[in-house]
Amino acid sequence: MILRTAGLVSGSLGLAPRDQLGNMVYSTRSQAEDYVLAGQRMALLCAWNGKQEVSFEGRRLVVDDDTWLVVPHGAANVRVRGNEQIQALTILFRAGMPEEVLGSLITSEDRLLENGEIEEDTLPFLPNLQIHDRSVTPVLLFICRHREAGIEDPLWYEEQLTFLLERMLTRHRHVIARLHSMPVRRAATRREIFRRVSLATDFIHSNYEKPLMLGDMARAAYLSRHHFLRLFKHVHDVTPHEYLQRKRTSVAARLLRGSQLAVEDVVRQVGFDSRSTLFRAMRRFHGVTPRECRQTSRTLMSMGMAMAEA
Q1: Separation CA 28–CA 209 (nearest Å)
Q2: Lower CB density within 10 Å: C or N end of the chain?
Q3: Which is nearest to 96 in space by CA: 12, 21, 204?
Q4: What is the pLDDT of residue 54?
């Protein structure tokens, strides 16, 4: 069995058990669930309204509303935990499908982020957290909605996952283009810079609620503070501190819109050191105060209820 579950709420597989070597789409709404990915199949994980903790190759990454993750191959332990029900989606591509779909599309340029020697049969998807965008995310949501609706057609999933892989490759090419803009001559050096900064970015997304300092983030990238600060700005165009504050503000905005938590509780949960810091960050990145953010959510909810009653 490629996918095993042992949780308080069981999910449902996208395909019948007899087709366990085919594509599998696992969708669950749960407060607590644990499962294991095993074997050599590429997996993609995402979560909404909470977190999935993914442990593999000695790393711990947290997938939440802002991110999705590819696990290229090998074993991974997944842990879903939340105060409310979390929508978790895990896609297991059938063996060989990513290579088949992208075989004629992948160029040597697409493989530039691979470590070491470039192999013709390797895929360019690295095991780092990816930010949701308008390219890949709509496809993930579309697949998730249909999985929730009980779609069981293997051919339908094959078509959607093919489209998803193509979108993922397009996104990867945008990363390559950004990497080329770095003022570094050697391609190998650019790859290593990106790899190390990506480790720090994963660290920020997985630990934002903790009191992180520049030294903590630099250690995650195996760099000195000075070099880390300079290289992080090359890759993301912002300082590590600003990136961290943006992440915290994004989570705070979701909590304010989607829960009844007091502002003080939101401050603690996302890692800000005070209410005033949250207020400044909300103004800077969202253009609203916490109170305005919550009121906007209530207004939209009231409009939705009025439309439903009409």
Answers
A1: 25
A2: C
A3: 21
A4: 95
